[in-house]
Specification:
Number of domains: 2
Bound molecules: adenosine-5'-diphosphate, ligand LB5GJZVW
EC number: 2.7.1.217
Mean pLDDT: 95
InterPro entries: 4-carb_acid_sugar_kinase_N, 4-carb_acid_sugar_kinase_N_sf, NBD_C, NBD_C_sf, OtnK
Structural class: alpha/beta
Number of strands: 18
Largest sheet: 15 strands, mixed
Catalytic activity: 3-dehydro-D-erythronate + ATP = 3-dehydro-4-O-phospho-D-erythronate + ADP + H(+); 3-dehydro-L-erythronate + ATP = 3-dehydro-4-O-phospho-L-erythronate + ADP + H(+)
GO molecular function, one term: kinase activity
Keywords: ATP-binding, Carbohydrate metabolism, Kinase, Nucleotide-binding, Transferase
Length: 422
C-alpha cells in the first residue's frame, strides 16, 4: 500500500475531524489510535490519520511520538506528511506545534513548512497572520480561557516564533490570491531570508485549495482540517487520488444503552450540556470533591447504572472559567486536568462494562483519556454529525463513538450525535 497522505494529529478529536474532512473530500481514510503495529493490515486507503495525545505533553515527548508516527507513515510510502493541529492553534510558548513542525521538517530534509490553522467551515480564518474565531481575534475569543492552553496572542507569526527554533515568515492573502505558484515562490523567498516556517493566510475554501497545491510540492506541512481539505483537493486534482464515495456501510445498528461524557469547558460545550438537560438525565461531577480524593467517578457510575436502561445519560465535569480557575489555583492546572480526565476514563470503562456501546465524548484531552482506557485501536469514519465531528465505528468490536472537539457542534449536539448512532 502506498499512501497519498500521511497525517499525524496531536489529539483524538482533531484526528476524527481531519479523517471526516478527508473522507468528505473523496480520500479513503482510516484513523488509528497511536502508532499502529508495524504489521497492521490496513484496507486499501489513500490516507491514514495517526491519532496522538501529544498536544499538552512535554515538547520532547511530543517530538519523539510524532517522529515515531512519521516513520510508520514513511514506511508506507506517504507522499506528504500533514501535522494536524487545532484550528485555534492550541499550544503554549513551550510548544508543541513549533518543536514538532521543526523536527518533522528537518527529518524530511525540507527547508520550510507551510503552516495554517484556517478552517473556514468552522469560522477559523487567518488574515495577515492573525487568527480569527468567528468575528473575534483569537485572543478575545473564549479560547483565552482554555483550561490547558489559554490563547492570549492572535498573531500566529509571533506565537509560532516563540515556540520554534526556526524563524517564522508570513504568506499573506494577497499572495494566496495569486495562486499556488505565487505561494511556492513566496516559500522559496522566505527560505532565502532564513525562515523555516511560514504562517499562511486563508479566509475562504478556495484559499485552502491554493495552499494545498503549494504545500503538496513539499514533504511536510502543518495545519488544521482546512489544510487537510486543500491537500485532498490538490491530490484529486493532480490525479494522484481517484475520488471515492464515502463508505456508508459501517455495519448495522448496535443498540443498547448510550451515554455522553463531557470534560470540555468550552463555551460551546457548556451550552450543549445546558440544552441536553431537557433531553436526558445530566450528572455534574464536583471537581473539588474529586480532587480531594472522594470517589466521584464511582458515584457517577452508580447514578448512571440506575438510569441507562431507560435512555441516554450525560456526565459532565465541565465548568465556566471562574470555577476552572478556582480548581486550578488550588490543585494546579495539569494535576486538575489529569485527575478529571482519569475520572472520565474510569467512568467510560465502567459504562462499557455495563453494556454501553454508543458513547459520545466532548473534549479533546478527555476523548484521548477515554479512548486510551478503552484500548480502541482504530476507527472507520461514518456520517458527519456537525462540521468537524463524524460518527466513528471501532474496527475491533461493535461500538459507535463520537469524539467532539470542545468548540464544535450545534446547540443540540448530544441528541444530534445519538440519532446517528443507532
Ligand atoms: N471543572 C473543571 N475544572 C478544571 N479543569 C477541568 C474541569 N473539567 C474539565 N477539566 C479539564 O479541562 C481540560 C479540557 O480539555 P479538553 O478535554 O481537551 O477539552 P477541549 O476540547 O475543550 O479543549 C481537560 O484536561 C479536563 O480534564
Ligand atoms: O481543529 C480543531 O479545531 C479540532 O479538530 C481540534 O483539534 C479540536 O481540539 P479540542 O478542542 O481540544 O477537542
Amino acid at each position: 500500500m502506498t499512501l497519498a497522505l500521511g497525517c499525524i494529529a496531536d489529539d483524538y478529536t482533531g484526528a476524527s475531524d481531519l479523517a471526516n474532512t478527508l473522507t468528505k473530500a473523496g480520500l479513503r481514510t482510516v484513523q488509528t489510535i497511536g502508532v499502529p503495529a508495524g504489521d497492521l493490515a490496513l484496507p486499501e486507503v489513500d490516507a491514514v490519520v495517526v491519532s496522538l495525545k501529544s498536544r499538552s505533553i512535554p515538547a520532547g515527548e511530543a517530538v519523539a511520538r510524532s517522529r515515531e508516527a512519521a516513520s510508520w507513515l514513511d514506511a508506507r510510502g506517504a507522499g506528504h506528511l500533514l501535522f494536524k493541529v487545532c484550528s485555534t492553534f492550541d499550544s503554549t510558548d513551550a510548544g508543541n506545534i513549533g518543536p514538532v513542525t521543526d523536527a518533522l521538517r528537518e527529518d524530511a530534509g525540507e527547508a520550510i513548512a507551510l503552516v495554517t490553522p484556517a478552517f473556514p467551515e468552522t469560522a477559523r480564518t487567518v488574515y495577515l497572520g492573525h487568527l480569527f474565531v468567528g468575528a473575534m481575534p483569537l485572543a478575545e475569543s473564549p479560547l483565552k480561557d482554555h483550561p490547558l492552553n489559554p490563547m492570549r496572542d492572535s498573531n500566529l507569526v509571533r506565537v509560532l516564533a516563540r515556540q520554534s527554533r526556526a524563524e517564522v515568515g508570513l504568506i499573506d492573502l494577497a499572495t494566496v490570491a495569486q495562486g499556488a505558484e505565487a505561494v511556492s515562490a513566496r516559500l522559496d523567498a522566505l527560505v532565502r531570508e532564513g525562515k523555516g516556517a511560514a504562517i499562511a493566510d486563508a479566509v475562504l475554501d478556495r484559499d485552502l485549495a491554493v495552499l494545498g497545491a503549494a504545500a503538496l510540492t513539499r514533504k511536510v506541512s502543518t495545519g488544521a482540517s482546512g489544510l487537510g481539505l486543500g491537500l485532498a483537493r490538490a491530490l484529486v486534482a493532480s490525479g494522484r487520488v481517484a475520488p471515492a464515495a464515502a463508505d456508508t456501510d459501517l455495519g448495522g445498528p448496535i443498540g443498547g444503552p448510550a451515554a455522553c461524557l463531557a470534560g470540555s469547558c468550552s463555551q460551546a460545550t457548556l451550552g450543549q450540556i445546558a440544552r441536553a438537560e431537557a433531553a436526558m438525565p445530566v450528572r455534574r461531577l464536583d471537581p473539588a470533591r474529586l480532587l480531594a480524593g472522594e470517589d466521584e467517578a464511582g458515584a457517577a457510575l452508580a447514578w448512571a447504572a440506575e438510569r441507562i436502561g431507560d435512555g441516554p445519560v450525560l456526565i459532565a465535569s465541565s465548568a465556566g472559567p471562574e470555577d476552572v480557575a478556582a480548581v486550578q489555583a488550588r490543585y494546579g492546572r495539569d494535576a486538575a486536568g489529569h485527575a478529571i480526565e482519569d475520572a472520565m476514563a474510569r467512568i467510560a470503562e465502567g459504562l462499557v462494562a455495563r453494556g454501553v456501546r454508543r458513547l459520545v465524548v466532548a473534549g479533546g484531552e478527555t476523548s484521548g483519556a477515554v479512548v486510551d482506557r478503552l484500548g480502541l485501536p482504530a476507527f472507520r469514519v461514518g456520517p458527519e454529525i456537525a462540521a468537524g465531528v463524524p460518527v466513528l465505528r471501532t474496527t475491533d468490536r461493535d461500538m459507535w463513538l463520537a469524539l467532539k472537539s470542545g468548540n464544535f457542534g450545534g446547540p443540540d449536539f448530544f441528541a444530534d450525535a445519538l440519532r446517528l448512532m443507532p
